[in-house]
Amino acid sequence: MSFQFAMLKNKNNSPEIEQRTLQWLDKHIPYTLKRSKRRTIGLRIDDRGLTVSAPLRASEKWLQSVLLEKAAWVVAKLEHWQSKKAPVIAWQAGASIPFRAETFVLQLVPKVRGAVPRLQGEVLLVPVGEDAEAGRIEKAVIAWYRIEALRVFQECVDYFAPLMKVKPSAVKLSSARTQWGSCSAHGVVRLNWQLVKMPLHLIDYVVVHELAHLVEMNHSAAFWRVVEIVCPDYKQCRKELHRYGIAE
Predict the structure, then answer these.
(1) Where are the strands (E) in the chain, listed by range?
(2) Burial of 4 from C-beta contacts in 10 A (0-12 / 13-18 / 19+)
(3) Is residue 225 left, alpha or beta, with left meaning phi > 0 and alpha meaning psi from -120 to 50?
(4) Proportion of the chain above pLDDT 70, given as a percent
(5) Is the dihedral of CA 125, 130, 134, 137 positive or negative?
(6) Are 71 and 22 in contact (CB under 8 A)?
(7) What is d(CA 17, CA 144) in angstroms, rounded to the nearest whole number?
(8) Burial status of residue 136 (CB atoms within 10 A of its CB: 0-12, 13-18, 19 or more)
(9) What are the Cα distances from residue 245, in Å, to 22, 80, 134, 164, 184?
(10) Is 139 exposed, middle or buried (0-12, 13-18, 19+ CB in 10 A)?
(11) Pairing of strands 188-192, 181-183
(12) Which of 24, 59, 162, 201 would bridge 71 by S-S if both were Cys, CB 3.0 to 4.6 A apart?
């Protein structure tokens, strides 16, 4: 096991944050080392990779021994996170995109004033010009996603809210990195626009989950009973959602 690292200094020009590479067996694992006044060495793995927090005076020998001891765990967790990441979309003609658990192919068509992307069979027609750059294509498709997401979410809310005898004050989109949805004390339900890529039964579950907070603003047993009334298979839905990488 060996270490390679490049140091990044913070605004105060002190070496408290470093970018390093951990070599274990045949793997090279980049990680961020953060030094602080803490007394122990801590490891955190999330969508940004591995972060190691260590005391300011932690020795290299101590740090290496901890990482060596945890190396197998680190690799397993990183591979788990990697498996949950959505495939990277190549923003070009012929690329595939998900929508309500189906796959559609991007087809670039001539620009027309006021025109927006639209589905035609298994194709999403994107009116940005056949020679459009990737950034322009991405912007147009994400705008379309958001429009469709709000429409789909509102339909779900309109269906489930009366069944649950609740009435949210508003339904809005979210771009949160760690949540599929949220519900405020004022009754505002926010749903992650990326949910619209998922199967409808998972969209339904997240909508029901957030509407249930209008009855129980917690995750108590009483809350889950409210969810179960209209979504009996909610436990299975939760497991499926976790495979997509954001916790609801």
Answers:
(1) 2-8, 17-24, 27-36, 42-46, 49-55, 96-99, 102-108, 118-120, 123-126, 170-174, 181-183, 188-192
(2) exposed
(3) alpha
(4) 89
(5) negative
(6) yes
(7) 40
(8) middle
(9) 24, 10, 25, 28, 23
(10) middle
(11) antiparallel
(12) 24
Confidence of residue 226 (pLDDT cuts 50, 70, 90): very high
Q: Is the dihedral of CA 87, 179, 119, 240 positive or negative?
A: positive
Each domain of the chain, given as residue ranges in start order, spans 2-84, 96-242
What 3-state DSSP class applies to 192? Answer: strand
Q: What is the pTM of this model?
A: 0.68
CA 168 to chain centre: 24
Query: What are the residues facing 7 on neighbouring strands?
Result: 18
What's the Cα-to-Cα distance from 136 to each of 108, 128, 133, 147, rounded to whole Å?
11, 7, 6, 17
CA distances from 198 to 103, 126, 160, 202, 220 (A): 11, 21, 18, 7, 26
- Half-sphere exposure in the Cβ direction for 164 (13 Å, CA): 29
> pLDDT tens across 159-205, in order?
999 999 999 999 999 998 778 999 999 999 999 999 999 999 999 99
> Would you say 170 and 190 are in contact if contact means Cβ atoms under 8 Å apart?
no
* Amino acid code (one letter) for 224: W
Statement: residue 7 has pLDDT above 50: no
